[in-house]
Design a protein that fits this description.
Length: about 425
């Protein structure tokens, strides 16, 4: 039988100024369909064991030096709701199944001075979480996700993600939500950490040191992406926002294109990773997205690069698909691919989510026909919506692996 110990400590600091704390030194279990709330600062001591299977509501600061967890069969929810700043601190990782951030006292009401781990869902209703200033971090566990991130609520600091699912990192800086999107391969043990910076990186990573294909680099913002565990080279998508990205990056020029660039520590310069640009139609404050498969990790940002599309004497790639059964462009046709049976074709949507993956692609039966064959958020066998997609073609030519990337357009005209 568990013993539930809750101590309330009232400390009179000054006359007419009383501070209260809720202190847990034993086992505190919040069972399903029950609620525990505290108006006072909550302190889970080193001997404290907090099990959240119901609703836990914190209206003030939260500190954990013991164990905060939940049972896998529950649907526990933790609410951080306040009318003043809330400090989330502690020497131990607090494990929350579901967490809701909702504090409208100021623009940045949450100060994250510890590591918290999300098992299921984080809901960003209102209030930016400052993890950068306070050296905190938010971890999304296997299969965890988030909802409602926007300029009103996101993580300003490090976000870690564990697992093999495609993931949008709910990151930003100052008052701007600037997510990155990762398709991370098939290893469930992959771990990546990402942070967005609205600042110039040129002091340590000079923008004048760059590939000759790079014309102009976005010098006011960058993403720092580390691969903490795993070996895959991910598909990365970065967003452009008119509030932060220079205006010149939204101008169209037939001789240039947008690409993702990475600071290569080994050669001490910015390298062009390439990229495909799509215009976002709905659902975000940003208006463009650049997608590519990266060759390494570190600092990334957007750049204007030379248009490197050149004719291919071996292959002709027809990048329009209209799967309406009229016999015209019903599939993604790569003329000449039959000469290179050792090949692989991957197709991603504009968020970097894989929707198709096939080996031994050919001109007859193994072909993309506008239907999903993805492993994650897009269901297999379903027709894909019209729009711009991104393809990666790899094939073996004379014992050399050649890789090509580019646009793919799907239309659903009848």
């Amino acid at each position: 039988m568990k013993i539930h110990i809750i101590k309330i400590l009232i400390c009179a600091q000054f006359i007419n100024n009383i501070t209260a704390q809720t202190i847990n030194t034993g086992d505190l279990s919040i069972t399903p369909n029950t609620e525990f709330s505290t108006l006072f600062n909550f302190d889970n001591k080193t001997t404290g064991d907090l099990l959240i299977d119901g609703n836990f509501i914190a209206y003030a600061n939260f500190n954990n030096d013991g164990l905060v967890t939940y049972s896998n069969a529950s649907n526990g929810q933790t609410f951080f709701i306040g009318t003043k700043q809330q400090l989330i601190s502690g020497t131990q990782i607090a494990h929350f199944q579901n967490i809701i951030f909702e504090n409208s006292s100021e623009l940045v009401p949450f100060h994250l001075n510890t590591t918290i781990e999300i098992g299921n869902n984080a809901t960003f209703k209102n209030g930016i979480i400052d993890a950068d200033t306070f050296n905190g971090k938010m971890i999304f566990d296997q299969n965890a996700f988030h909802t409602d991130a926007s300029n009103l609520s996101f993580v300003d600091g490090k976000v870690e993600n564990i697992g093999d699912l495609d993931f949008e990192f709910p990151i930003g800086d100052q008052l701007y939500f600037r997510p990155s999107y990762h398709d991370k391969g098939a290893n469930a043990n992959n771990i990546y950490t990402t942070q967005y910076f609205l600042q110039n990186a040129g002091n340590q990573y000079p923008y004048t040191s760059k590939d000759e294909t790079i014309i102009s680099i976005d010098e006011v913002e960058y993403w720092n992406l580390t691969q903490d565990q795993g070996s895959e080279k991910i598909i990365l998508s970065l967003t452009l926002d008119t509030n932060t990205t220079p205006a010149s990056f939204f101008e169209e020029n037939p001789n240039t294109q947008l690409g993702i660039v990475r600071w290569d520590q080994a050669v001490q310069k910015w390298v062009n990773e390439g990229g495909v640009t799509t215009n976002l139609l709905t659902g975000a404050n940003y208006s463009k997205l650049v997608t590519t498969q990266v060759g390494g990790y570190g600092l990334f940002t957007i750049a204007i690069v030379k248009n490197t599309i050149t004719p291919d004497s071996d292959l002709i790639i027809y990048n329009a698909v209209s799967p309406n059964g009229d016999g015209i462009n019903d599939s993604f046709y790569i003329k000449g691919i039959d000469k290179y049976p050792d090949n692989r074709v991957e197709i991603y949507n504009r968020w970097g989510v894989k929707v198709y993956d096939a080996t031994s692609y050919n001109e007859n039966d193994v072909m993309f026909k506008g239907y999903s064959d993805g492993r994650s958020t897009v269901k297999r066998g379903e027709g894909l919506p019209a729009g711009t997609y991104f393809y990666v073609l790899k094939y073996n030519k004379d014992n050399t692996i050649i890789e090509k990337t580019g646009y793919l357009y799907i239309t659903n005209d009848k």
